[in-house]
Design a protein that fits this description.
CATH superfamily of the largest domain: FAD/NAD(P)-binding domain
Radius of gyration: 24 Å
CATH topology of the largest domain: FAD/NAD(P)-binding domain
Shape: globular
Number of domains: 2
Distance between the termini: 27 Å
Largest sheet: 8 strands, mixed
Helix content: 25-40%
CATH class of the largest domain: Alpha Beta
Number of strands: 20
Number of helices: 16
Structural class: alpha/beta
Bound molecules: flavin-adenine dinucleotide, NADP nicotinamide-adenine-dinucleotide phosphate
Length: 545
């Protein structure tokens, strides 16, 4: 539809995405008196938790922390049943929040934003959708998600495959019954590691194709610890304040000692304690695991020893032992019975590191050396075009028709992960250059939404037409993000943090690893200093009032 033909609706803010980020942004803007509309591709709210319905999907940040913190009453009223909530439970929660604040009335579902163009004459964004809608918005907030562009690798022959196939990130709503079927799962990241034990329990035979072995730690999931819950609910707001001041958006006592200062016995004891706690606890065992290779190697070896103890067949155990990269420099996986699954008679593991999947056939798949496998169903647990994927699918054009995809050709560039120079009044929630995927994302989402909302109120109060990151501030921030990453071991892994999972994607460490608390302080200081590093265009053009 041409821009002229579209019935243009005028708004203060257009928000793209109805996950945790888009919904909270809507609520905050509505409460601040702005007119706002959300556009969402799915037919309901939930984002990640709407799309990722594969068996075993659940959060790996504890439920009591992986929930909204902006309204203490929510935490008191909602009853999580498990330490790590399942996808259906999280989806019920976000639907409950949407109902409670009557959010759906301002969400247009089953609609995909296709373009967003900045008009310099009016200082407004013209946003269009695949349904032919057009919106003129002063502000555009991209709440499009960091892990929302599911990616099936470009395998030859997928169209010819006669069986069923699924991507974990676009799972059928009605579920899938694998009973009696031969199934192939490609991938061994978090989604695979969660789903493989459940698929194995149903399938006649499951074959797992592993390119890179992953570090995974036990969740030790169970019912909510009521005593712990009561303790944090005494002052949930303070608990969340502490999360926002922390390194990763979760409240943990920081490690105090170097792994290299500890004796081997002390190290073993500490790792064992944290292994028993479960989840990400082990990552915080010592202060230098993320920055010192020798220290890191002690944790890596500890996890490998656990894999060897668990997996009965020594050859399979060795294949499951990660060796190519430092511990936890790819996203650490948290599992329930993953390694144990390889002790089942109906499960086999195939190494595709040096003998990759070369094509999908009519009946299954083939490896480079010609070995063929037949399957009733194939599951692609192959991940996402992370952090930039959803944005890159929208034709975003800023000043002078500058295309975001061209600007980011060599990797994303932002100031604070909130804005890109050349794109005034356009914000990204948990965008590249912010802690986002290295944190409890709900904490990071709330911090961004609060900052953006405060910023919009400030601009309104000061009758300011535009806010735009300066190129200088952006350059300095990008340098800082890279410098901080280079102090760590993270760039040593071929991870999606670096875009390494997408052939041709520039290798740039995208999230900010300096910590949620430090980062939030920086954002607050920038605002206090009159939005330092942003150019504020003083007065509204008359045409835009
Ligand atoms: P999303 O939930 O991804 O929502 C974005 C929405 O935008 C989607 O609904 C999408 O349809 C919509 N959208 C995108 N582009 C367009 C467009 N052009 N037009 C219209 N709509 C569009 N994080 C944690 O902190 N802890 C966890 O335990 C955790 N577990 C995870 C498990 C899985 C399986 C995955 C995939 C991610 C997990 N994450 C976890 C990260 C998770 O993505 C975030 O925690 C959070 O849910 C992101 O919320 P969001 O609103 O920013 O984005
Ligand atoms: P992922 O971590 O990117 O894993 C994708 C897997 O597919 C990797 O093992 C990858 O191998 C493999 N792969 C990709 N292309 C392949 C190919 N052509 N041939 C063979 N193997 C291929 O994706 P994900 O598991 O969906 O997880 C993405 C992120 O979402 C996680 O890191 C996490 O942040 C979040 N998540 C969290 C949870 C949770 O526990 N709460 C669950 C799921 C997802 P390589 O490693 O070699 O690239």
């Amino acid at each position: 539809m041409s821009e002229a033909a579209a019935p243009v609706r005028t708004l203060d803010a257009l928000i793209v995405g109805a996950g945790f980020a888009g919904l909270y942004q809507l609520l905050r803007l509505r409460r601040a008196g702005f007119t706002a509309q959300v556009i969402e591709a799915g037919d309901n709210v939930g984002g990640t938790w709407y799309w990722n319905r594969y068996p075993g999907a659940r959060c790996d940040i504890e439920s009591l922390e992986y929930q909204y913190g902006f309204d203490e009453a929510l935490a008191h009223e909602w009853q999580w049943s498990e330490r790590y909530a399942t996808q259906p439970e999280i989806l019920r929660y976000i639907n409950w929040v949407a109902d409670r604040f009557d959010l759906r009335k301002d969400v247009r579902f089953e609609t995909r934003v296709t373009s967003a163009h900045f008009n310099e004459a009016t200082n407004r964004w013209l946003v269009t959708t695949d349904r032919g809608d057009a919106y003129s918005a002063k502000f555009c907030v991209m709440a499009t998600g960091c892990l929302s562009a599911a990616r099936v690798p470009d395998f030859k022959g997928l169209d010819s495959y006669k069986g069923e196939w699924y991507h974990t990130g676009e799972w059928p709503h009605e579920g899938v019954d694998f009973t009696g079927k031969t199934v192939g799962v490609i991938g061994t990241g978090s989604s695979a590691i969660q789903s493989i034990p459940l698929i194995a329990a149903q399938a006649k035979h499951l074959t797992v194709f592993q390119r890179t072995a992953n570090f995974s730690v036990p969740a030790h999931n169970g019912p909510i610890d009521e005593e712990y819950k009561a303790k944090i609910l005494q002052d949930y707001t303070a608990f969340r304040r502490a999360a926002r001041a922390s390194q990763g958006g979760v409240v943990r006592a920081p490690a105090e000692k170097s792994a290299l200062e500890a004796t081997p016995e002390e190290r073993q004891r500490e790792f064992e304690i944290r292994w028993e706690i479960g989840g990400f606890a082990i990552g915080g065992a010592f202060i230098d695991l993320a920055i010192n290779e020798e220290a890191n190697a002690t944790a890596a070896e500890f996890v490998r020893s656990k894999i060897r103890q668990t997996v009965k067949d020594p050859a399979t155990a060795e294949l499951l032992c990660p060796r190519d990269y430092p511990f936890a420099t790819k996203r650490l996986c948290v599992d329930t019975g993953y390694f144990e699954t390889f002790n089942r008679d109906n499960v086999s593991l195939v190494d595709v590191k040096n003998n990759p999947v070369s094509e999908i056939t009519e009946t299954g798949l083939k490896l480079q050396d010609g070995t063929a496998y037949d399957f009733d169903a194939i599951v692609f647990a192959t991940g996402f075009d992370a952090m930039t994927g959803a944005l890159s699918k929208i034709d975003i054009q800023g000043r002078g028709g500058l295309k975001l995809n061209e600007k980011w050709e060599h990797g994303p560039r932002t100031y604070l992960g909130l804005q890109a120079a050349g794109f005034p009044n356009l914000f990204t929630i948990t965008g590249p250059g912010s802690p986002s995927v290295l944190s409890n994302m709900i904490v990071s989402i709330e911090q961004h939404v609060d900052w953006i909302t405060d910023c919009l109120e400030y601009l309104r109060e000061h009758e300011t037409a535009t806010i735009e990151a300066t190129t200088r501030a952006e350059d300095e921030w990008v340098d800082h993000v890279n410098t901080v990453a280079s102090f760590t071991l993270y760039p040593k892994a071929n991870s999606w943090y670096l875009g390494a999972n997408v052939p041709g994607k520039p290798r740039v460490f995208m999230p900010y690893i300096g910590g949620v608390g430090n980062y939030a302080q920086k954002c607050d200081q920038v605002a206090k200093d009159g939005y330092e590093g942003f150019a504020l265009d003083a007065k509204e053009p008359v045409s835009a009032r």
